[in-house]
Amino acid sequence: MTSTLPKALAADPEPAVRVTVGRTFLAMLSREVRVLRKNFVATFVRVLLQPLLFVFVFAYVLPKVGGGAMTGGAGGGTTFSTVLVPGLVGSSIFMQGIMAIVFPLMMELNWQRSITDRALAPLPIPLLAIEKIVAGGLQALIAGLLVFPCVLFVHAGGQGPDVHVSNWPLLIFVCVFGSLLSASGGLLMGTVIDPQKAQMLFGIILMPLSMLGCVYYPWAALEHVRWLQIVSLANPMVFLNEGLRAALTPGVEHMHFYVYGTVILVGTVLMTWLAARKFTQRVLT
Question: What is the pTM of this model?
Answer without folding.
Answer: 0.83
